[in-house]
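Issue 218. Parser rejects a valid record. Input:
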Amino acid sequence: MDVKDKLLKIELPGHAFYKEEMTGRTLTELEVKKLAALTHGDNIKGIVQLLNDAVSNDLFELYTDDFWYLMWWLRVQTFPSYPIVVPWTCKCGAENKSDLTADKLKYIDIPEEFNPLHAQVRLSNGELISIRPQKVKDEFDVDAYLKQRMIKDPDRSIKGVLLDLACLGEGKTIDDLYKSYKAGNFSTEDFFTIQGFKTLYTWGVNKIADFSCYKCKEGVSVEYEVTLTNFFPDILHREYLKQRILFNVPSTPTEEPVRDDGLQRV
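Output the parser choked on:
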């Protein structure tokens, strides 16, 4: 059976927030080759577009927390023998490299009162405006807007503002929200509230894992960071490749072997 025919149900943490359930499959050999090229080229949008073909729903419309849960699902399903390696330093001074396997993953549950389809925030001027968690598409929409408007943003501060604004006002465009921001309709306190909402209402994989130091054996909770460009395995992960590549050692010959010159001695 072709890999593309083996569809599995994926229950996202926020599955109740989407109209359709999601199915997905492992990545094909060709997709893995393309993924390697996109990863080394730091092409984030290209990576998302490639992975989009492996699932039934549009990844760009996922909430970011569900997207990262899905990335873990694809990683574990496609590369179960190649865990992410987390480097960390123990307080005893030992440098560790620990395997982040599926059983090490921790999850944050969605708060019971939360529903992104009905969330609102009150601005400092008294206005109530709808708010939602960040979606995958927001980052690419903001990048496109900055480029289209030729807005210079060397320290990426304007991008940060736009990413906050993108979560507001159902049906409002980034241009609408940015013009409102430039007109002074959002206060510093409003941005603090938006960022607080994004911090309070998060779910999915918690980027903290429990490891033991190889030297002193003490258990430690380690915070780790992953990005799309280092998330999937690389052929440079030699220690795991060597575990999968075996060499059959020939038994001791009972007869004299053929010499390199091709002439059999008698």
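Fixed in the parser; the record now loads. Strands lie at 8-10, 22-24, 84-89, 95-100, 106-108, 120-122, 128-130, 204-206, 208-212, 219-223.
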